[in-house]
Specification:
Layout lengths: L4 E11 L15 E11 L2 E6 L12 E4 L4 E4 L1 E6 L8 H8 L4 H6 L4 H10 L2 H17 L2 E7 L6 H17 L3 E9 L10 H17 L5 E4 L8 H13 L3 E6 L7 H8 L3 E4 L5 H8 L4 E4 L1 H7 L6 H6 L4 E3 L13 H12 L3 H7 L2 H7 L16 E4 L4 H6 L6 E6 L2 E5 L2 E2 L5
Parallel strand pairs: 1-4, 6-7, 7-8, 8-9, 9-10, 10-11, 11-12, 12-13
Antiparallel strand pairs: 1-2, 2-3, 5-14, 14-15, 15-16, 16-17
The protein binds N-(iminomethyl)-L-glutamic acid and fe (iii) ion.
Length: 421
């Protein structure tokens, strides 16, 4: 078969090589192809390898010389709070003086601060701000982003956030997977009666479903926020409506959220900075992905999730930014990957699997995305680095030069191709 596009002269292609979810040491067992090429037809991978690619060349085939750059699947940021109003640099000083994140929240700041900004922002303001964030992510090699609501805490504003994400998905080259997170904090109007808010969120799930605004539901299970029993109620209702379910658990205080997430069949359980040893074992024998967010530990100056121990014990791990204005104000997944290497002692190969195939798995797209295999979508990046280790070693630097999404070039030498805005 004749290819539409061939990228040749690739120094090394790196890709996960196991079936998802990739657990434990399989995460580091990736495939490498030296002096390789990749052939693409109709947005899918027709072939890749190191032998001659002449049989795929026809009159109309476009051939691009990678000039000895390295290639891997494009990255997936599977946990972000992308759409929100304003910023919280005023709270950074408080954090640096040692005032805990949850105390800032309890005093009416934190998430509530961003809720006010998000309520007051127009649709277009939210759209423009998030579009700029997506451009930053694109330049860092990200082609799929999960985006949570949760800065409305009332149906109208939650819907506004989710509609912004829907329009971004239509107009920006990055694919967006929306998650409804009405249970992100207890709105001030329900401060004295949280149970009524839990009921309201369960009622609103039907509206979100009916309007096709999200495919997943998330909840912040934390001390003074939502309990394990609140989480069970909301996620069980969401599950029954056909949503994927996931949970922010074991971020600051260990309440038992991880165990519940596994029992309910959550696709991912996220944060896990204070996970117990028993729950690590339970995760290892489940299909729930441990979605680790080391950028948040870094910014809040907290312990890192025991990612090394998890992989050593056979857990399937993914890694994301958690991009949000309060606990991880950065869109930079590559920096977060570099932090994961240094602080969690994860190997570059493990981290590559974490931000590609395992992230694709819990978003439900691993059959078509997340690794470079014949028949899968041709979504990959070229990096200006001699090898994979170098990408982590030379940290704080963006090594990504080019990105293709489903066979279409969206980034060329760090320039975004065909900006449609
Ligand atoms: O994942 N933990 C709860 N939610 C976010 C932070 C949101 C915020 O502070 O605005 C998180 O860390
Ligand atoms: Fe989060």
């Amino acid at each position: 078969m004749i290819a539409d596009l061939i990228i040749k002269n690739i120094k090394t292609i790196y890709t996960p090589n196991h079936k998802a979810p990739v657990k434990g040491y399989d995460m580091r067992d990736i495939k490498t192809v030296h002096n390789g090429y990749i052939a693409i037809k109709d947005g899918l991978i027709l072939n890749l390898g190191s032998e001659s690619h002449d049989v795929f060349i026809g009159d109309k085939t476009i051939i691009i010389d990678a000039q000895q750059k390295i290639m891997c699947p494009a990255f997936i940021d599977s946990h972000t709070h992308l759409v929100h109003g304003g910023s919280r640099e005023d709270e950074y000083g408080k954090l640096l003086q040692g005032i805990p994140y949850l105390d800032i929240l309890k005093a009416g700041g934190g998430i509530h601060n961003t809720v006010n900004h998000t309520k007051n922002a127009s649709f277009d303001e939210l759209y423009e701000k998030a579009y700029r964030s997506l451009d930053l992510m694109l330049k860092l090699g990200v082609h799929v982003v999960e985006a949570k609501s949760g800065y409305g805490l009332d149906l109208e504003t939650e819907i506004k956030q989710l509609n912004v994400a829907k329009k971004l998905n239509a107009n920006h080259p990055i694919d967006i997977h929306s998650t409804y997170m009405g249970a992100h904090a207890i709105p001030k109007r329900y401060a004295l009666n949280k149970d009524l808010y839990v009921d309201e969120v369960i009622k609103d799930l039907h509206v979100i479903k009916h309007q096709h605004l999200a495919t997943a539901v998330d909840i912040f299970c934390e001390d003074h926020v939502f309990t394990v029993s609140d989480s069970e109620k909301i996620l069980t209702a969401a599950n029954a409506l056909g949503f994927k379910i996931k949970m922010h658990a074991d971020e600051i205080k260990s309440l038992g959220g991880t165990s519940l997430a596994i029992d309910l069949g959550c696709s991912s359980v996220d944060h896990l900075m204070v996970i117990t040893d028993d729950d690590i074992k339970k995760l290892a024998s489940s299909h729930t992905i441990a979605n680790l967010l080391p950028g948040t530990s870094f910014y809040l100056n907290k312990a890192f999730a025991p990612g090394r121990k998890m992989i050593d014990q056979g857990v399937a791990v993914s890694i994301s930014t958690d991009y949000n204005p309060g606990s991880c104000p950065t869109e930079n997944l590559l920096l977060v990957m570099q932090i994961a290497a240094n602080k969690m002692k994860l190997l570059p190969e493990e981290i590559l699997t974490a931000v590609t195939l395992n992230a694709a798995y819990h978003l439900g797209i691993s059959e078509r995305s997340g690794s470079l295999e014949v028949g899968k979508e041709a979504s990959f990046i070229l990096l200006d680095a001699p090898n994979l280790n170098y990408v982590f070693y030379h940290y704080g630097i963006n090594h990504v030069s080019d990105m293709f999404i489903k066979g279409k070039q969206v980034l060329r030498n760090q320039e975004i191709v065909g900006d449609k805005r």
